[in-house]
Recover the amino acids of this structure.
């Protein structure tokens, strides 16, 4: 890792980051990079030569069908396996560990571990999972760029600590960054899970610049993108839509508030309420499958979930005027069903119905979305943060 010594070094690093960031969006020619960055062709030529020598960039040729006859311009692309990002997802439902290449694709399989209430034992198992994946892919520690960890909020991402996520008591106050850096001897970055998923959405080329990603599992997390930037609050704690109230005299919540959205509309809460009438509904998927096949009671439970969510989504959109609501997490299973209900119920409540159009979509991240979002927290540090491995 390099230490920045002078303004000149800082500028050189920023230029390299800008060039790598552009190539990350898609292969570029040298001339194209000069035009987009405003740097001279000579400066781009030198930088590209040294990045290629370090193994970060490679030259590729456009496929013949993409070019004019006789012209096969040389483009520059990232070497996806130059370094690896480790992604770790920590949640009430369990833990998932995986590896990402530089483009953000998951390498092979991930490792799923059951939830453990004892954090030290869980972190030992998670670290062992990371080591065994690296071994499986024959990757020595120097090939690892960093480790991204995502967890339910509130998370102090600056200090790398979990704070006090409700119903996650044994993990309260855990210094995740410190604990995992000690075990793995790698740089570790911690982020609020829904914020990381919203960032992954932006980096996957989302057509929306201002959107709310609802991460609905046993809890309800919110990842907020405003004008192309992830908003995590003034202290980086993340946004807690799940703990905004939909009933000020409602069910008491361990966060201190009353009538919190996630006590009514999380998949855990809806399933709990459904099972009081139909105890045979053992999983969220079984409830959704039944609704999908026309079961009126189960369909009604999803309608109720949509009604609770619509109250919060309406508040959110009246405050922020967003372009889209994206659905992720357990509730995204056959999520079209819930989204259609949520859209209908929200549209009935929205102010200025005729002047606003809000899109309702499933999250684009399909392949191990939690691990991808977690690993992307580490990759993000290369393109925009504090990692300087070149
Ligand atoms: Zn609460």
């Amino acid at each position: 890792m390099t230490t920045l010594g002078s303004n000149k070094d800082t500028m050189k690093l920023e230029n390299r980051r800008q060039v790598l960031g552009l190539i990350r969006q898609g292969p570029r020619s040298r001339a194209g990079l000069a035009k987009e960055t405003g740097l001279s062709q000579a400066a781009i030529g030198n930088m590209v030569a040294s990045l290629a020598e370090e193994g970060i960039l490679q030259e590729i040729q456009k496929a013949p069908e993409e070019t004019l006859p006789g012209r096969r311009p040389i483009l520059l692309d990232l070497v996806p396996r130059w370094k690896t990002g480790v992604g770790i997802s920590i949640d009430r439902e369990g833990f998932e560990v995986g590896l990402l290449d530089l483009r953000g694709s998951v390498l092979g399989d991930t490792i799923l571990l059951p939830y453990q209430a004892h954090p030290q034992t869980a972190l030992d198992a998670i670290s062992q999972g990371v080591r065994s994946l690296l071994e499986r892919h024959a990757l020595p520690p120097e090939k690892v760029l960093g480790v991204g960890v995502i967890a339910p909020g509130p998370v102090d991402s600056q200090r790398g600590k979990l704070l006090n996520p409700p119903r996650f008591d044994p993990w309260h106050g855990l210094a995740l960054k410190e604990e995992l850096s000690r075990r793995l001897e790698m740089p570790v970055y911690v982020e609020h899970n829904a914020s990381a998923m919203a960032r992954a959405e932006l980096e996957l080329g989302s057509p929306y610049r201002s959107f709310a990603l609802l991460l609905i599992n046993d809890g309800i997390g919110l990842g907020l993108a405003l004008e192309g930037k992830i908003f995590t609050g003034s202290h980086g704690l993340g946004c807690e839509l799940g703990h905004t109230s939909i009933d000020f005299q409602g069910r008491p919540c361990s966060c201190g508030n009353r009538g919190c959205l996630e006590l009514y509309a999380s998949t855990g809460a809806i399933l709990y309420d459904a099972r009081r009438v139909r105890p045979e509904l053992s999983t969220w998927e079984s409830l959704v499958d039944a609704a999908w096949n026309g079961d009126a009671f189960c369909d009604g439970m999803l309608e109720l979930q949509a009604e609770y969510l619509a109250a919060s989504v309406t508040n959110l959109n009246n405050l922020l005027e967003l372009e889209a609501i994206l659905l992720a997490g357990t509730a995204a299973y056959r999520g079209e069903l819930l989204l259609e209900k949520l859209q209908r119920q929200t549209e009935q409540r929205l102010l200025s119905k005729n002047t606003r159009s809000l899109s309702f979509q499933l999250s684009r991240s399909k392949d191990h979305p939690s691990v991808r979002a977690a690993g992307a927290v580490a990759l993000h540090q290369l393109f925009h943060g504090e990692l300087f491995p070149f």
